Amino acid sequence: MLHRLSRRALSVVVAAAAAVLPSLVLPSPAAARAQVAGFAAACPTAGFVSDHYGGARNHDGVDIANNYGTPIFAVGDGEVIASGPAQGYGQWIRILHPDGTVTEYGHMSQRDVAVGERVTAGQRIALMGAEGEADGPHLHLRVRRDTSMNRGIDPEPYLAERGVTLPCTPGARPGPAPLVHPAESGRVVSARSADGRLEVFAAAADGVHHAWQLQANGAWSPWEQLGGPGGAELAIAPNADGRLEVFAINGKTFQHRYQMSPSGGWSGWEGFGTGGRDTAAGVNGDGRIEVFASGPEGVFHRYQNAPNGGWSQWEGTGGGPVGARLGMEKSSDGRLEVFALNDKVFRHQYQTAVNGGWSAWGEFGEGGRDLTVDHNADGRLEVFASGPEGVFHRYQSDRGGWSGWEPTRGPANAQLTSDRTADGRVEVFAANNDVSVHMWQTGVNAPYGDWTAFGAGGSEITAATNADGRLEVFSTSGAGVRHKWQTGFSTWSEWSWVNATAGPVIP
């Protein structure tokens, strides 16, 4: 979801516009870092990956090999909850991080930290060795979803989502996280530019309108009319170099535009295909954007041939529901998954390998009105769908399969959106013509509480995350586009117009 052209003369507006958020109370930078899930990680050690997660040996972690005495560093801030002898490891260290995950380090020749100590990302905690069951000096790095001793999750996508790609160089600043989760698509979309500012796009009858934060976590610009397809469905995704790209489709045309530089000005609209019903965009593990579009003949897709590069031709996906609403997410190993819902059927398909081809469409449920897809803190996908009987959801089990559909009640025939709170809990928002409500997980990876009133009804709703981890929600109606934001990490502002003006009308 996303972005803009010149910002000249906006410096005059910044001071006055800041008054739009008078009740905004931000935590200190240290407190914000402590609460944000998906922390910026540090490189654990130098070396080459000698054994990946899984495989024929069902390897529970990743091995990074190097010489005896190579320094080992904490992946992130946290508390040391184990440091000492361990069966198989010889010696180990376990660190509990603020998002609830635990990293384990094994086979070291020397430990530099003790139980109860607080460590910071990039702090040296040990020296590499070959203690325990090891053929040579290496770090065995394992990641667990919590403090339990259940099987770990793959450390490589875990690190990638936090900005570290193996092999890595200790002390280097984290790069853009390759594991980019798709933004919600719809008639209003929002996403962050490379500098952390939220941008919002809204598709009215006269084309696409755009507003942006004047600074990260701050006040908003006036609305800007961009032209483009009228009454469109929108999607947005970042290029590998951080430039946002926005896609707009209506029944007659499909166009896109993109930032000319990260956080910078935008190109004009360019043709991208013929018209259709809906679109969704996501980013492959290698940084290439992939776009799906639905229409009367099913679902089609096209993708960048290289990161930041040109595009393939449109290709069929083997069918898919006609005239479908589309949703995308990324599994914990980096594979994209697409969900397609119309009023009769619900189907999905997924990449059979990271950056690879696609499975056949599989049945996923009955038809409905709208859908939203998100990921739990442990990487499991969760899908919500609305219909005449309310909102239902299903989720991946620990073994990768799916639960059955479960009712959540909620408003009938609602528009849906979701995002993750700063501590990693999924929060879901639903709006129909009469009411807006939301519900959230009672704990990380946990069940949901009851639906709670969130405001008056609306025609569209979308959620995004500020640079400091606070959620911000945009809702549209025949009166304009309004927004509501977390004033802390558990309290909300009142609804207000973006930049105190109603903006585009989206009935």
TrEMBL record:
Domain M23ase beta-sheet core: 58-147
Lineage of the species this protein comes from: Bacteria, Bacillati, Actinomycetota, Actinomycetes, Kitasatosporales
Native organism: Streptomyces mashuensis
Keywords: Signal
Descriptive protein name: Peptidase
Domain PLL-like beta propeller intervals: 184-500
Keyword Signal: yes
Keyword set includes Signal: yes
Signal peptide: 1-32
